[in-house]
């Protein structure tokens, strides 16, 4: 087995439960039920061990920088004291070894001045999940009482956009819903002045295709291309959109490390509230235990995780990791075969093209051709 690249990012499940009940959630509404067997919050002893393991990995590989993202469920349900303990122990263990870039991915409904004070003191950036305006967001992102979450998220975003907090605003995460007009969604997201927006395709497999799946009409590509055209032709850059920027970089010969585009190895792990080491959360959409590795931070260091066949296979990039049908495709170096979870079929595992294959082909081809043509035109003009 070839030596694996070190990990540089850890997604940490500081809280298992969520105060929302989004009907498309890949954790609570899909096939995986392992969350039921995990503690609701990460214990301080587990946080201490996690920080030691990350620092150990950083020293061993001379990493100048690591990234830690607090995640859930809804991570703020872990409470101020537990979160502050984790932030402090990470800072202490990594002092003199590596810079620790900290972030939290939240639904923002629980954000308040106390949280923002904590995040300012520790330099924690905040990403917020939001699917558009009230109607678009509240179609799926509702509380357990059935009430929409948009008003609560709006209050959190207003707090995050205050002058003293604005530097911590990392951006918005939006799941594509074909029922929502793409430009209306984009404009509603722009109204919050996010520095970045990331659009996610709904997690789906060949066994459970996404809503409106139609390889002949490629509705997901069409939705995203409407947004791309509006974003790309704007007289000034209003925000970053990672999916489009990654595809543009790849089209122009750049290198991108991403789970959903390109052919590079992935460089992150998930650590659950009990200290178990897992693969990408998206794999929970494939089957019960789909993200499990059988490893944990008390018994295993992260180098052992990198060598573990399940982990090594899941994070491996390159053409050899893809199905035969993908290897000769003209856009494979852009789409990278799509997200691993989206290739899953219960009979053939991951040895398939993405369930979004037709959409990805149209999306990547159009963006590639547009960007390359414009680059050539600019070169000729100069």
Molecular structure report:
This protein has 382 residues and is an alpha/beta fold. It is built from 13 helices and 10 strands. A 10-stranded mixed beta sheet has the order 7-6-5-4-3-2-1-8-9-10. Strand 8 (268-271) and strand 9 form a beta hairpin. Helix 1 (44-60) packs parallel to helix 2, helix 2 runs parallel beside helix 3 (113-122) and helix 8 (242-251) crosses helix 13 (357-381). The radius of gyration is 20 Å and the shape is globular. The model has no long low-confidence stretch (mean pLDDT 96).
Topology:
Layout: E1 9-13, H1 44-60, E2 65-71, H2 80-94, E3 99-106, H3 113-122, E4 124-129, H4 134-138, H5 150-160, E5 169-175, H6 182-190, E6 196-200, H7 219-232, E7 240-241, H8 242-251, E8 268-271, E9 276-278, E10 292-296, H9 302-307, H10 309-315, H11 324-327, H12 332-335, H13 357-381
Parallel strand pairs: 1-2, 1-8, 2-3, 3-4, 4-5, 5-6, 6-7
Antiparallel strand pairs: 8-9, 9-10
């Amino acid at each position: 087995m070839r030596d694996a690249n070190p990990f540089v990012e850890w997604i940490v499940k500081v809280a298992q439960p969520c105060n929302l009940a989004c009907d498309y959630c890949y954790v609570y509404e899909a096939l995986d039920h392992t969350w039921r067997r995990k503690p609701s919050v990460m214990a301080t002893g587990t946080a201490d061990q996690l920080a030691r393991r990350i620092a150990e990995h950083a020293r061993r590989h001379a990493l100048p920088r690591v990234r830690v993202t607090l995640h859930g469920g809804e991570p703020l349900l872990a409470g101020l004291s537990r979160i502050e303990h984790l932030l402090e122990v990470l800072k202490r263990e990594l002092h003199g070894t590596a810079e620790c870039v900290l972030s939290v991915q939240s639904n923002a409904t629980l954000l308040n001045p106390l949280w923002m004070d904590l995040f300012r003191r520790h330099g924690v950036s905040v990403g917020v999940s939001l699917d558009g305006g009230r109607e678009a967001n509240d179609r799926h992102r509702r509380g357990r009482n059935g009430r929409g979450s948009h008003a609560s998220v709006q209050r959190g975003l207003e707090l995050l956009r205050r002058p003293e907090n604005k530097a911590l605003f990392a951006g918005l995460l939006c799941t594509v819903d074909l029922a929502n007009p793409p430009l209306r969604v984009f404009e509603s997201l722009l109204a919050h002045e996010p520095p970045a927006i990331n659009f996610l395709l709904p997690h789906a497999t060949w066994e459970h295709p996404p809503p409106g799946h139609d390889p002949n009409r490629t509705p997901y590509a069409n939705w995203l291309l409407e947004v791309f055209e509006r974003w790309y032709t704007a007289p000034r850059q209003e925000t970053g959109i990672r999916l489009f920027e990654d595809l543009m970089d790849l089209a122009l010969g750049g290198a991108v490390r991403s789970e959903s585009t390109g052919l590079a190895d992935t460089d992150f792990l998930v650590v659950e509230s009990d200290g178990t080491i897992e693969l990408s959360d998206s794999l929970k959409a494939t089957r019960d235990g789909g993200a499990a590795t059988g490893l944990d931070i008390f018994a295993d260091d992260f180098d052992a995780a990198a060598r573990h066949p399940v982990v090594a296979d899941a994070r491996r990039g390159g053409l050899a990791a893809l199905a035969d049908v993908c290897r000769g495709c003209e856009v494979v170096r852009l789409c990278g075969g799509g997200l691993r979870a989206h290739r899953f079929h219960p009979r053939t595992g991951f040895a398939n093209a993405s369930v979004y294959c037709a959409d990805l082909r149209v999306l990547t081809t159009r963006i590639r051709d547009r960007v390359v043509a414009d680059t050539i035109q600019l070169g000729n003009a100069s």
